[in-house]
Amino acid sequence: KAGVTQTPRYLIKTRGQQVTLSCSPISGHRSVSWYQQTPGQGLQFLFEYFSETQRNKGNFPGRFSGRQFSNSRSEMNVSTLELGDSALYLCASSPFGTGELFFGEGSRLTVL
Amino acid sequence: KQEVTQIPAALSVPEGENLVLNCSFTDSAIYNLQWFRQDPGKGLTSLLLIQSSQREQTSGRLNASLDKSSGRSTLYIAASQPGDSATYLCAVSTTGYSTLTFGKGTMLLVSP
Question: Within a 10 A sphere around the Cβ of B58, how many other Cβ atoms?
Fold first, then answer.
């Protein structure tokens, strides 16, 4: 069974641009969540989607948004990029009812 | 607000030693606790999941315990190997959904 797939793996953007990251969950998993990892703050929860509905949202500005499609694939978007948005963005999927998360390899975003 | 602390922040041991990593959390009303491993530049690999009703879980050379009343969990690694070198992260869920609160991790180095 394929794991969680994130694309792109690496990307470089400049301040003010926007970026869209994609995540394909493990087959059968309907919950997808997103996390930001930085050296200073560690891993922080961004948001979670279940059956195309945002179920929970972390404490991030409105520039960070996401969505989930009917096939459970998810995207997150960051608009008006700032230098501080440079981070590893991790996506995780979870099978219904277990609470266990399985993470992808992440998308490393560098903002110049 | 849930806070997770991991001690020590870094640990260096010779191959073959048994070792214990510690995790503490401030709110004992957790749904589950999960231990992850992260290799440099990679995503997270799930090691063990302990539901709130459980006291411990074992997988191979790994054993994780949970004491909800004291807000503590330990990850025991037996007969450590150089391949165990990685950062180990503890995360708790208070909702049963995919909103995890992570510790900052313990960076483990096992020398041959």
Answer: 11
Residue pair A33/A49 in contact by the 8 Å Cβ criterion: yes
DSSP 3-state helix, strand, coil percentages of chain A (rounded to 5)?
5, 55, 45
- Between the CA of residue A52 and those of A19, A30, A111, what are the distances in Å? 20, 9, 29
Note down pLDDT in tens along chain B; length 112 residues.
899 999 999 999 999 999 999 999 999 999 999 999 999 989 999 999 999 999 999 999 999 999 999 999 999 999 999 999 999 999 999 877 778 999 999 999 999 9
Distance CA B40, CA B14 (A): 20
CB A22 within 8 A of CB A6: yes
Backbone torsions φ then ψ of B4, nearest 5 degrees = -120, 130
Inter-chain Cβ pairs, chain A and chain B, closer than 8 A: 70
Query: Which chain A residues are Cβ-neighbours of B31 within 8 angstroms?
Result: 99
Instruction: Report the chain A residue with the minimal C-alpha distance to residue B50.
Output: A100
Pair A66, A23: CB distance under 8 Å: no
Pair A81, A13: CB distance under 8 Å: yes
Pairing of strands A19-24, A5-7: antiparallel
Contact flag B36-A98 (C-beta cutoff 8 Å): no
Tell me which residue of B51, B40, B44, B52 sits closest to B108, measured CA to CA: B40
CA pair distance A70, A101, nearest whole angstrom: 20
Amino acid sitting at position A79: S
